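ugh ok so i messed up the first submission bc i forgot one of the chains. this is the corrected input, ALL of the components this time, i swear. 264 residues overall. if the numbers dont match what u have on ur side tell me asap before i send this to the collaborators (the ones from the other lab, u know who)
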Amino acid sequence: MNYITAFVIGGLICVIGQLLIDLTKLTPARILVLYVVAGVFLGLFGVYEPLVRYAGAGATVPLTGFGYALFGGVKEAVDKYGFLGVFTGGLTATAGGIAAAIVFGFLIALAFRPKEK
Amino acid sequence: MDKKTYSAMVKELSPSSPIFMDIVKAFFGGGAICLFGEILRNFYIMRGIDSKSALTWVAITLILIAQLFTGLGIYDKAAKHLGAGANVPITGFANAVVSPAMEYHTEGLILGLGAKLFTIAGPVIVYGTAASVLAGLLYYFKEVLMK
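and heres the new structure output, hopefully the right one now
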């Protein structure tokens, strides 16, 4: 059972983001971009893979996991197709999440009005 | 002990310091979302889905729920308290994709809703893809050419 490690590791990754918001005044949008890019390179250096094995969704649900999936796709595609994989791997591996975010986002933005703030 | 040292000590030990509370909330909020993701992952694996596809299904499910909650006005209310605990998980990304699109729906379906879906998705995909191509080049030259 990975439930406790998923909770703790996922929580800690969010704490790092909170510290960045509080101490550096980075906006949430910048942190999302930073997390994705960090996830790609943590994947490249082989640091993120053990974390995913240890914490499961605790490592893949934070946006660093999206970066990790981008690199995982590139790696697999390079192993299979060679140089072409450098270009095709990332978006192929993350297509499910991207398409879901766009299509569900489209439908929900059509159906709902923003609430008064 | 003079007044200054004392007030510094109080400030340091006080649990109500805003950063301390922010961190506690981010930890429990983010942890709870990841725990829910792990429950979903085990559910999909139990249904016979392979472990890699299960992760994609977890992402798709969390995105749908987060965007639905955004439409209902629940996600932003929770995010006010949870801070990075709600922003950093993929649910925060999903929320950031749909929010501006809802907001700009009134400006039309193409340049309003359609364009604003990419306010956050745009930069995340641009920098993520660029980083993955750069990392892919490094991996290619290391793995393929060094052999």
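quick check: Chain A touches chain B through 76 residues (CB under 8 Å). that seems consistent at least. Chain A has a mean pLDDT of 95.
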